[in-house]
Each structure stands twice: as C-alpha cells, then as structure tokens.
Amino acid sequence: MTTPSRRYHITTFGCQMNKADSERMAGILEEMGFQWSELPEEANLILYNTCTIRDNAEQKVYSYLGRQAKRKHEQPDLTLVVAGCVAQQEGEALLRRVPELDLVMGPQHANRLQDLLEQVFSGNQVVATDPIHIFEDITKPRRDSTVTAWVNVIYGCNERCTYCVVPNVRGVEQSRTPEAIRADMEDLGRQGFKEVTLLGQNIDAYGRDLPGVTVEGRHLHTLTDLLYSVHDVPGIERIRFATSHPRYFTERLIQACAELPKVCEHFHIPFQSGDNDVLKAMARGYTQEKYRRIIDTIREYMPDASISADAIVGFPGETEAQFQNTLKLVAEIGFDQLNTAAYSPRPGTPAALWESQLSEEVKRDRLQQLNHLVSQQAAERSQRYLGRVEEVLVEDRNPKDPGQVMGRTRGNRLTYFPGDLTGLKGCLIPVRITEVRAFSLTGEPVGNL
Ligand code: SAH
Ligand code: SF4
Ligand code: F3S
Q: Is the pTM above the cut of 0.85?
C-alpha cells in the first residue's frame, strides 16, 4: 500500500445523513493514519460527500470536482473520492465525466471506506454503488462537535414521493437494532455528549423491517418504543429526532414526547404542499387536513412546541390557487422554521417526466412569496420568547462575537449570550431572552430556571 503523506480533507454537501456519514468516514481515515487538513490544497486525499436532492446541489459538486481534477495533473499522488448521493446516482458515468477520480462510492458503502481505499492504493479505479446490507460500524466517528451528536437509527427510504431521488440513492429501509442504538448513545454519554439527534429520512418507519416482537397485537419496534428504551441513557440530557413523515406520525409518539423529559419539544415534519391534489400527485399519502390535525394534537399536548417543516413550490402542474393553499397552510399554522425549495426535476423520478413543468420564473416568484411569509412568521413566533427564561445547551463560541457563546433552546432556536466558552461548553444554562430575531435569540444567563 503506497500512502506517502497522509492528510485528508472532506467537504460535505446535503443533509444530516451525509454529515453523519462524513463523520464516520473521517473516523475511518484517522484510524488509517490520515490527519485532518482544513485546507483542501494541503490534503492529498480529498473526499466530497455529495448531495443530488436538487440540480443546484449537484452542479455545485461538479464545480468543486473540476478544480481538484485539474490539480491532480500537477500532483499525481492526490487521491480523489466522490461519496454520497451524486456518486450513487451517477456511478460509472462520473468516471467518464471526471476521469481523474479514484473512487466513486454510494452512501451505503461509507463504512467500507478503508477496504475501497486499499483497492485504490493498489492501483485500481473503484466504483462501489451496488446495494448492500449496511454493516454495523466498529470505527469511532470523528465528530465535529463534542456536545451534540447524530445517531443513525434507520437508513434508506421505502416511500416513493414522485419528485424525490432519495430512495434511488439511499436504498431500502434498514433499521439498526435498539441495542446498537442504545450502545452508541451510552458511549456518547460516557464521552460527555449532552444531546443526541436520532436520524432517518423517514424516521417514523423505524423498526418496520426488524424481526417482530409483537405484544398484544402491537409490533414492539417503533420509534416510540425506541424513545422509551433510550431516554434514560446516562449523561444524555436532550434527545431529538428527524425527519418525520406526516403519514406515519402517531398520537402515541406525541404522548411519548410530552411524557419523556429529555425529548425536546421540537418537531420537524415536512408537509411539502398545502394542496390535496398536489399532495396526491406527489404521492405523499396524506391530506392537508391530516397534517393540520397532527400539529393540533402536538399543540394540545405541548402548547409551546416548535414546529418546522420542508415545502416545495412549483411542483409540476401546481396552479396559482394550489400555491395559495400552501401559503394559507403556512399562514395558519405558524412555523418556527421552514425549509423551502423550488421544485427541481430529478433524473429517475416520475415527476421529472411530466409535461406540466412550470417555468423557472414562476417557481422563483412563488419561492420568494413563500420565503417572505416564512421570515415574517418566524419573527412573530420568536416574539413569544422575549423576556422568558429558556434552557440553552452551550455548543460553541459566537463566531461573530468572541465575548459570547451560542447554543440552542429545547425548541431548537439558536441563542447567543455573554460568557466564556471554557466552563460553559456542554452546560445547560438558563438564559433570559432579551432580544429576538426571526431565526435567533440573544439573552443573559440567570441563576435559576
Ligand atoms: N425524508 C424527508 C425529506 C428528504 S429530502 C421527507 O420525506 O420529508 C429534504 C427535502 O428536500 C424534502 O423535504 C423536500 O422538501 C426537498 N426536495 C426533495 N426533492 C426535491 C426536488 N426534486 N425539488 C425540490 N425540492 C426537493
Ligand atoms: Fe424522499 Fe419521500 Fe422518502 Fe422523504 S419520504 S426521502 S421525500 S421519497
Ligand atoms: Fe442530499 Fe442525499 Fe441527503 S440527496 S438531502 S445528501 S439523502
């Protein structure tokens, strides 16, 4: 194996799954003797962990790759790796497009990085995109934070939303066992981590593929059961989970969140559209009325819960009236945060082939209108924090003001307050909120909650 000088750089695009995969791959590289290099120019192994959810995400990857491919002509010992969802989607085609690449590997192969690199170092160009069973990983991830951590609970997605590439690139659902998840969390607790976010593209599907333990007619491996079985892990003070699908969201889950003190009152439940016909065309499997009922139920149990979601505007065939239904839903629910996107046709998805595509101009205009409403609403939602004392988990320094630290409230609002990171990092601090903005807060630490 020829690995003369060993410095690596990873750039991660896309969602939290990719971030979690990157941390695991970084762990593998460090175990192999590589050292992190902040600057890609100083690394001799560069890994791009890519996203293909929308066309602009994919194009960004190509522009990064182009630069490094050029560099490889001057520095032939540079190892170039493309991992993640573009790798899975494009496979061999990526090698034709960028022949300088050494390794193209889909997300299901993240844990196999060492294996694959050994093939590269013995002189091969490698493509690893075949669907596999994801093996439990024994390598320690190199985590970006020492306070908050992600724990995968289910990989893949079995839904077939007509706009979405995720099932094509992430494969079928594979749940990890509750024992493996708990073991990870116990380890994190011992290392001093305070917050865990349980991850899945469709986390409500957790457990349906696990061999069944059925008690009184009920399958025992659900997300709700998982929350009950991990909430007492020592050291872990907060538990979050994402992403929820409205089709499977249950009142039992809401009850569990209300009952379990460590589970934060924050729900990320994408609705995508406020119009029933559009939802049907998207194959989402619920109506906007059902979505509203879920939010109402959450608010019955936890009146102050913060609610975030994703929405798409300009889906093929979306009429002005249908778009208005999305605005109406947003106006009536009052989101704390909403990730919005203009529909982007994706290769290999049904909706991309429909003739009813809207113009870029219409999509852009609708996106702007929705974004305007969202920031107005988020600002209104922030008002309720003014003067209140919120529990903030301190994660880091405020990058814009070294005299301040930053962290998040249980509702996931980014919060700044004066203080020194040493001594505060990883602590839960009661903070009186003195200033509110749409997506962040500022306050003063107080003695008692
Ligand atoms: N599993 C989650 C979301 C996964 S993708 C769910 O079911 O909600 C993250 C978000 O990207 C989606 O919620 C959707 O809003 C957006 N998205 C996915 N495909 C898209 C596309 N083709 N065009 C625009 N936005 C898209
Ligand atoms: Fe994509 Fe739908 Fe699966 Fe979410 S549930 S990842 S939108 S196919
Ligand atoms: Fe992107 Fe893949 Fe996540 S396409 S959003 S990185 S699952």
A: yes
